[in-house]
Design goal:
- There is one protein chain.
- The chain has 395 residues and is an alpha/beta fold.
- The protein contains seven helices and 20 strands.
- Helix 1 packs antiparallel against helix 2.
- It is elongated.
- About 5% of the residues have low confidence.
Length: 395
Amino acid sequence: MRHSMRTNIAIGIVAILLSAALMLMSNTAASLAIVLVAVFVPILSIVLGRLTAKRTRISFGLGKSCVVDQSLALEMQVERYVFWRGRIELMLECRNVMTGGVERTPVVLLPAAGKVEHFSLPVNTTCCGVVEISLVEAVSFDPLGFVRAPIPEATLSSSYVVYPTLFDLEARVNQSSHPDILGAEYDRNKKGQDATEVFDTREFRAGDSLKRVHWKLSARLDDLIVREPSRPADCDVALVVGIEVGEQGDPGRIPVIDSTLSLAASVSLSLLRQGIVHDVAHAEGDTLAFDSIDSRPSFDGMLDVLMATAYPRRARSETLAALIDQWSSSRMVAKTVMVTNFISEEAFERLAVITNLTVVYVGSDTGLGVSSNDKYPIVHVDAASVGASVKSLEL
């Protein structure tokens, strides 16, 4: 665009020189008028162009979220002088928090009809994650293309979330025997389904089972009181999400990342629909973060956390080993399902020592099959088949 502006200036200079030569040769009033027009029109264009840039207002509107590959647009409204409009050039920067990828997009807005101009720009939704979008530069040109002036009032700092696709999946957890001391400790902050420990008591409501009525307390208070059961602090099932994003600029990694997150979320949702309270864990730097999934709001909150997590380019075995040591000291889990897009045999073997482990590996052109050793099975899933042909998983 700078080349185009230099070309316009060169044409203007040539026009002035030609009109001056014409005046010298003809020495007429008409030739003098041509010279004046050739000189003052560019000056007028430059002055009005800079004034228009200062008075230009650009407002932005952006949807909060969408599903991967679903359309989402950045809406723009431009208010400026109607009688002297040139093109506007923007430079937008989008950064995916999850992958760390940064993309710069140049945008050209040509003059449109109406007092307020409306524009719509599709944003990139091909990769899951929180995407931060900002305006790096905004400049305005006069209609003749002689001046390039910044728009001081144009600012943009927003974000949107691209969620993975959820699909109907039957996740069957086979070897989910309880830990030896399951129930030895109870979560005093959350209710659950274990009637052997009471989380709280409350008044009877329509739909409550009579089996949950605390009859002695009801007789003393002369009102029906029911028990709220507690939930063991240790859980039966844990779902571990393992993601490595690879090097930036590798488009082949994006479908694998999307499919891994889609499969992990769909497995969690399947467990929730079966009434299986479970934990979802993922690495955050050198720590392991847990989210307890016992309701749809907690599931939605877990998805938000996964989308806003910055995952490593490469998963390091020593980091995974440290996380597993942290795992064994803080949790006791009977069954662990690891949905991952990388293989780390050393880390998986250490994890299999402390829990019954199934690894679900999502990759490119892996097909669908199961390989196993003496310690844990690996379910191989082709990234392209997630959601299409994968309808059930034996875990």
